[in-house]
Amino acid sequence: MSKISPLSGFPELLPAQRAVEREVIASLSRTFELHGFANIETRVVEPIDRLAKGGEVDKEIYVLQRIAAAPDAKAELGLHFDLTVPFARYVLEHAGHLEFPFRRFQVQPAWRGERPQEGRYRQFTQADVDIVGRDELPFHHDVEVMSVMVDALRRLPIPRLSFQFNNRKLIQGFYRGLGIDDVTDAIRVIDKLDKLPADEVATMLVERVGTTPEQAQRCLDLATIRVGDSSFVERVRALGVTDELLDEGLEELAAVIEGCRAVAGDSVDVEANLRIARGLDYYTGTVVEIFMAGYERLKSVGGGGRYDALASDGRTTYPGVGVSFGVSRTLIPLIADGVLSGSRPVPSVVLVALNTEDDRDASAAVATALRAREIACETAPAPAKFGKQIRFAERRGIPYVWFVQADASTNEIRHQVKDIRTGTQVDADPSTWAPPEHDLRPTIVSTVSTSPHDQEENQ
Amino acid sequence: MSKISPLSGFPELLPAQRAVEREVIASLSRTFELHGFANIETRVVEPIDRLAKGGEVDKEIYVLQRIAAAPDAKAELGLHFDLTVPFARYVLEHAGHLEFPFRRFQVQPAWRGERPQEGRYRQFTQADVDIVGRDELPFHHDVEVMSVMVDALRRLPIPRLSFQFNNRKLIQGFYRGLGIDDVTDAIRVIDKLDKLPADEVATMLVERVGTTPEQAQRCLDLATIRVGDSSFVERVRALGVTDELLDEGLEELAAVIEGCRAVAGDSVDVEANLRIARGLDYYTGTVVEIFMAGYERLKSVGGGGRYDALASDGRTTYPGVGVSFGVSRTLIPLIADGVLSGSRPVPSVVLVALNTEDDRDASAAVATALRAREIACETAPAPAKFGKQIRFAERRGIPYVWFVQADASTNEIRHQVKDIRTGTQVDADPSTWAPPEHDLRPTIVSTVSTSPHDQEENQ
Q1: Is residue B58 part of a domain?
Q2: In a shared domain, residues A429 and A308
Q3: A336 and A354 belong to one structural domain
Q4: Is residue A421 in a domain?
Q5: How far is residue A79's CA from residue A82's CA, in Å, rounded to a whole number?
Q6: Distance between CA B318 and CA B40 in Å, rounded?
Q7: Binary contact (A98, B14; C-beta < 8 A)
Q8: How near does any CA of chain B get to the CA of A115, in Å?
Q9: Helix or strand or coil: residue A283?
Q10: B68 to chain A: closest CA residue
Q11: How many structural domains comprise chain A?
Q12: Residue B175 annotated in ligand binding
């Protein structure tokens, strides 16, 4: 077959890069589990009508058809484009077998046929964490699920993240208190502050939404509030709007900010940013977007919020709150930029050298003894000169080479292990020798200075 | 939305069942890594012409199309139906960045649009382990990769597995030595011994392949040899056929059998079964099929072998040897039959009870202290009566409930932890208390008596 070129939008990782992704996923999963979240996986396909978002089927869905299907057969299945739609369906389908509130995390790929660009891929992995209730879901779960994601992401050796929170009740209450009728439309216009200057947005509020210039100004005043603590409450109050829903939103947002600040430590920013709306999605309370310092061009690397109706079967409604982290969106640019790399492309800590092909069993016995104590290793593929076997280990990043030699004078077997980075070679016993903890597994090498906790794990 | 019915052929696991699958995948991955195999993941799509097998595109491939594509647009991508085709493409595409021999394992879903039945799904997860060389790959890697899979599978608490090996050189050499011209066609006929009685197969050999009745009889004699050690060598020799390729095949098969027996211990059968051919695939040496006791109806639960040309770009050829284990094909029937189950559907070991909503911070502080020592836990969702909170834990299989109470007389905080299975309640310190090791994570509960090693892990 001919030379193969990559498929645009379907990035693939080399083994050392994949080691980075696996360590990140393992770290996130460990944190989610410590907080009592169970892992699930959903099938990758959903009926196409279920993939409809707000009644409209996303133009970028990939549909599936058996190659042997009749040419005019109607496609019925599509690949999921996020993990929320399949999770909502899973909850409805399996509700009778789940305990509520149901806490789950899910790390899987999703697919969108969009134009590939940095941070936007046709196949990409996400890590989602959600809590879903039956009929009701107390607000404290908003604080919980958001702090769990803060706790998970603060452990990663990546550039500084900023969790920017808002609350749909706060926005809606404020607009309602101001006397604006079409709250949804106003939110949609305010969402354009990312792309348009403030005065143009104000003009649109007046012309499209029908606000007075004074109302428009106060909407802008609200949208520009961005602080790292709960002082936003006073600043909103100072705008002189009163409304019950606004009060509720202020209280909820303050609780989320304080709860997340308590776990964020020094490595993650937590802010109230009253411009965040997550425009067209069906959030009903807490909303969040996550940004990464120096990578603002990726837009958000994660986001989520509260849905009062994550799923419903007509009789029962399942409210949910959750947040999603873009694993591919974050890691692939960081790996491409050399910010993250894997310490080696193989799990092996030790290459057991081979004297002659006839000695393969002796070398394999050493490998078996090391593996019995959870030390990953491999036997050299061929009895080449030792210099060549050492270079073989070097090219793979394997830090130690083990030699098994019969002493010429005594004819006793002598075991030695060489740290090929330093050249130090010492006598060793295969049933007791162990490498230092940090050599045991491939680790993430990061150019980002991380918290002491992470440095410990990755040095 | 209306009631949801499952999608035939796309099985999904409940959380406790998924815990079984995760533990199995973690156990397999751990063993593969101990043997120096690196994990990779490939994108799920391949160009349709690359999914062609022996020049013919599998009728059961799912093709992919953007929903917005023109109605007459030609589909170019399909979902992979195994992990070998994408691995071969990955090797060709990334060869410049890989070190050979390249040892990898891969655990991912694959898709086939076949008629769903027990053990046959439209989406199913496989675990593959392969070694691939550039230009050449010494035979000892056949022994290595097969013993690695034996070592990985013998650790699973599943019904007894049987690895049944053969060698294509042995078959081809034998047939050639017998004077049969069309070896491939003869193999294809012998492969029907599964379904047809021996005399019918003999007749087909005479009529279709053009053998003499005596040649046909010796083909059948070969195909009925099945032994658990290398005594097959003598039995083949006794059939009186001589051929160089036959000698090579006998030697290789004996080495594979002895190598795998050395790691199989008491929990896996290793046999030479000279009827195994893996008919239509392009194997050139070692072949293997794996069967599970009591589940013969699933046919093989895994298989693989040696390809002298796993991949080729015209200039360079990449020989490979590997074996695949059907994770879904094995686990889903075992879970459905109650042979395997998860010890609980949540990772939490401890539910921290809640006195009043105002005490949520105190309970959360206990949870944080436990998590700091890797003990998974969750705080009760509501300050219900303790009996109700204990039942909440019970329904989730959480073994411990933690109580934080102010002593009425001294006003001091008193911590207690209750094992709700035994009712034993003791004073405990959140900064030092730990559950017994076997309670720490959800484990696999198996009705199969397993090796002492597994019992330790799963009791």
Answers
A1: no
A2: no
A3: no
A4: yes
A5: 9
A6: 18
A7: yes
A8: 12
A9: coil
A10: A59
A11: 2
A12: no
